[in-house]
Amino acid sequence: MLKAVILIGGPQKGTRFRPLSFEVPKPLFPVAGVPMLQHHIEACAKVPNMKEILLIGFYQPNEELTRFLVNAQQEFKIPIRYLQEYSALGTGGGLYHFRDQIVSGSPEAFFVLNADVCSAFPLVEMLSFQKEHGEENSFVILGTTSNRKQSMNYGCIVENEKTNEVLHYVEKPSTFVSDIINCGIYLFNPDIFQHIGSVFQKNQQDMLLEEPTNGWHRAEAIRLEQDIFTALAGQGKLYVYKTHSFSWSQIKSAGSAIYASRLYLNQYHTTHPERLASNKEGGPTIRGNVYIHPTANIDPTAMLGPNVSIGTGVTIGAGVRVRESIILHGATLQDHCCVLNSIVGWDSTIGKWARVEGTPSDPNPNDPYAKIDSETLFREGKLTPSITILGCNVTIPSEVIILNSIVLPHKDLNRSFKNQIIL
What we know:
Layout: E1 2-9, H1 20-23, E2 30-31, E3 34-35, H2 36-45, E4 50-57, H3 63-76, E5 80-84, H4 90-97, H5 99-103, E6 109-114, E7 117-118, H6 123-132, E8 139-145, H7 148-151, E9 155-159, E10 166-171, E11 180-188, H8 192-208, H9 215-220, H10 224-232, E12 238-242, E13 249-250, H11 254-271, E14 285-286, E15 290-292, E16 297-298, E17 303-304, E18 308-310, E19 315-316, E20 321-323, E21 325-327, E22 332-333, E23 338-340, E24 342-344, E25 349-350, E26 355-357, E27 378-379, E28 382-383, E29 388-390, E30 395-396, E31 401-403, E32 406-407, E33 417-418, E34 421-422
Helix pairs in contact: 4-8, 4-10
């Protein structure tokens, strides 16, 4: 019997994802046509003997999250529950707080997946790897190869190349340690709670030496990466399974959401070919990988792609050009407008002959190990050139040009902007 735990974080996280996270919890943001979380759940549901999927986070339960869980349970025929933390407890603290729920039913092992990663999720391969490597009760980290410079932005793993045992683990080191990085996907067994419990007890003891201010909360805030993996490395308990079959990426910023959408759309050729649009008589011109929701209304003279996702109820007029973009629910793209490297928010309108364009934030195409850089909005006091984001209910009038800008919800613009945050 197996279980899966997906760590979804909460509203205090995801600041780099604004303004999109104002309208919907980040884990429910559509990537390649479906909520980000659905890619994780689909992968977990395909694992044989998977009995339950648990979501752990500190979002307040709301109608949108509840509806998603009900629909996912019906579609994948597997119990899915949300366990709400009373506060942000870290990647290890949330697991420890709900350990009784996780070990209920005596699962032999369970997966832990961070919600903000894009991956092919080689979960079955990780199971096989765990049985072939190390002791019976060993733990597995999914790893991949990065370039030397970018590796320092992730958890770095030093392995025994013959056994794949993790000999050393450092989270975001200040100097180069290893080009093998942590993908945020793990395979544990219940023994992991002994190691997390030891950290919890140490935190409690440390709290006794300080003034008693919300000590329980501070003791329970535990990080898998810094507090657990660093201690387990070199003890014959922790192993790394390296994946090379699919480009892995984090989804920290809106720009990385477009890149993740591209990766998932490409993956659909083998996993969900029915989700990919094709050129048909009387339909729009499709270039490359494109997802179109069945409720969208698209003029046959429009051209879409490559790497475009069109949401529910979207209207696209004559001569419209869309490339490398995500168009969200209810948006309207009027005749002859152009949308490139952008996210068009819910129920927004782009007028005739308007142009909405961002700057791609893709990894270096000449470096096979390069990852996407999830930069902050500002660098040296200036807005970082990045994709253009239109928030909810934004109106772009005809013939206006918006370049590398972020437009917050409920704005009606009447002039062109470049490199701006429009409040």
